[in-house]
Amino acid sequence: MWYLLDKFDKYRMFKLKPETIENIHWASGGIPKLIIKATAYNVLETYPKINMKALEELLLEEFTKEQIATFKYRMQHVMDEVNEELEFRDKVIKAFDQFLPSPRVDRLPSIPDIMRGMSSQFNKREMTQVYNYTVAYLESFVGKEKVNELRSSATDI
């Protein structure tokens, strides 16, 4: 499955496998990792962290108790993975808030300046994720248009 964001800010779902292939994949009776991960994110609509009980409850809508019992190890692994992603996101937001404790929308530094300022707190291989979380966080309070301006403009802090 692919989700495409169109020009009207609506997500469109696209299936990339023909049904005959999809039926073969589902015939094994397993619970795919991507399904577990998507369900784990759905848990976050109700709970601040993902827990096994809530994950099982949502998976029971699509799978049997036996299937869920068989794939508990995979569920635990995915749950830990998603919780680690959330912890890292929170770490990035905290670092951003320390870098710019009270950002003024009219005087925000450029994205490259923000990334340079935050780079001392993260290792090089984490910086792509830091960038993605930072941009998403900025977009949440100044909007996409302003963030696009900040990608190239250089301003003072």
Give an overview in words.
The chain is 59% helix and 5% strand. It has 157 residues and is mainly alpha-helical. It has a domain at 102-157. Strands 1-2 form a two-stranded antiparallel ribbon. Helix 2 (33-43) crosses helix 3 (52-59). The termini are far apart.
Q: How would a crystallographer describe the biggest sheet?
A: 2 strands, antiparallel
Rounded to the nearest angstrom, the radius of gyration is: 20 Å
Low-confidence stretches: none
Q: How helix-rich are the residues, as a percent range?
A: 55-70%
Strand content bin = 5-15%
Distance N to C terminus? 42 Å
Q: What best-fitting shape do the alpha-carbon axes yield?
A: elongated
Given helix and strand content, the structural type is: mainly alpha
Could you give the order of strands across the largest sheet?
1-2
Number of strands: 2
Question: What is the average per-residue confidence, as pLDDT, rounded to a whole number?
Answer: 84
Helix segment tally = 8
SSE string, helices as H and strands as E:
EEHHHHHHHH
Sum this structure up briefly.
The protein has helices at residues 19-27, 33-43, 52-59, 65-70, 72-99, 111-118, 127-142, 144-150; strands spanning 2-5, 11-14. It is built from eight helices and two strands.
